[in-house]
Task: inverse folding
């Protein structure tokens, strides 16, 4: 199997994980909207914000590591993973700061809970997809 086909397969799986995160984000936001109805707007947009923080950070990491123009040299790939993960952490921190500063009122429990669930979605998808 060539390196190019491995990279294509990895990028395809990454797109699937990001899509699963988006779906999970929207489903959990709608559930929280209905759960707290008629005052569920705060929980719903806080959940949407938390889910989007996780999804956008992972999408950014996938683009940096698996995006176009990546080298096949192991040292360059490893450096790309380190820089991608550092960028992902900084991006996540910046988005959390922006969320808590700019969004008023914010339901911190909904934001953090949905962030955690959406962040764990690729692991769950991976476990359930291997059982087939």
Result:
């Amino acid at each position: 199997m060539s390196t190019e086909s491995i990279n294509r397969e990895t990028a395809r799986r990454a797109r699937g994980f990001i899509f699963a995160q988006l779906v999970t984000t929207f489903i959990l936001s709608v559930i929280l909207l209905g759960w707290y109805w008629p005052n569920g707007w705060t929980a719903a947009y806080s959940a949407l914000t938390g889910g989007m923080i996780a999804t956008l950070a992972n999408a950014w990491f996938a683009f940096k590591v698996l995006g176009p123009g990546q080298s096949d040299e192991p040292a360059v790939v490893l450096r790309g993973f380190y820089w991608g993960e550092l960028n992902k952490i900084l991006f996540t921190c910046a988005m959390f700061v922006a969320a808590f500063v700019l969004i008023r009122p914010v339901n911190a429990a909904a934001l953090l809970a949905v962030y955690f669930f959406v962040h764990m979605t690729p692991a769950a998808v991976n476990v359930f997809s291997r059982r087939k």
